[in-house]
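Duplicate of #3305? Posting structure anyway:
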């Protein structure tokens, strides 16, 4: 009898391991190309040309372009060795970095990457799939904005307020919103340098975005930024 119990427990344990390995294999992790630190457009030109654009070309985006955008939003740009702090591309109150960047990728929108929603890991410049499949319809419904669902890429910025609250308490949310604004400007300027079109949106149904990303109680959506290549004919960018 004891041998049978041991055998059953061993079988359950092995099945659990195999299931866990299977789940791990299905989790798509993509190492992105190293971003460039020198471009072909000056900062002044990017500022001059910056516009909000809601129409996008039906052109595939490269992994290099995606990497460049993500790096501009939260990429590692240095290190404060004295306190082992990795510095990022946008300023953050107290160097706490409460923001996370997700990117929703439409079907065949980026070369070599399947449709889904991915979380950016700045320290390793990689993306990890957290939701599979094209979620354009869900994003359109969650934002009431057709251009968000039509965009090849949709960056969803979230925050964990508790990270900032540990130091700044009642000033935390203003600091978080300011940081998200820095991130949005970085993305638009980098997009302009890549000849891409971007639109920054603050309107969305929080509960739908939370459900779509399966966010924890401690994480809230802050900002949505749609992106794609510029179309041949633009309609009233502003």
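Output from current build:
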């Amino acid at each position: 009898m004891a041998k049978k119990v041991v055998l059953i427990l061993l079988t359950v344990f092995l099945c659990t391991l195999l299931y866990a390995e299977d789940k791990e294999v299905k989790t798509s992790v993509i190492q992105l190309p190293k971003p460039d630190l020198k471009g072909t457009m000056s900062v002044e030109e990017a500022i001059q040309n910056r516009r909000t654009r809601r129409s996008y070309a039906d052109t595939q985006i490269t992994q290099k372009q995606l990497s460049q955008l993500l790096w501009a939003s939260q990429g590692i740009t240095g290190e404060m060795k004295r306190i082992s702090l990795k510095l990022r591309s946008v300023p953050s109150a107290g160097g706490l970095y409460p923001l996370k960047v997700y990117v929703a990728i439409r079907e065949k929108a980026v070369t070599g990457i399947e449709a889904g929603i991915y979380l950016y890991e700045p320290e390793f410049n990689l993306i990890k799939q957290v939701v599979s499949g094209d979620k354009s319809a869900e994003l359109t419904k969650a934002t009431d904005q057709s251009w968000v669902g039509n965009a090849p890429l949709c960056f969803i910025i979230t925050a964990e307020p508790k990270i900032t609250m540990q130091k700044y308490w009642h000033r935390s949310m203003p600091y978080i919103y300011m940081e998200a604004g820095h991130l949005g400007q970085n993305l638009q300027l980098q997009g302009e340098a890549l000849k891409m079109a971007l639109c920054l949106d603050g309107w969305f149904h929080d509960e739908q975005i939370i459900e779509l990303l399966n966010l924890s109680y401690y994480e809230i959506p802050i900002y949505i930024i749609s992106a794609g290549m510029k179309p041949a004919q633009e309609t009233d960018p502003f």
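Confirmed duplicate; merging threads. Residues 125 and 175 are 25 Å apart (CA to CA). Residues 4-25 have pLDDT under 50 and may be disordered.
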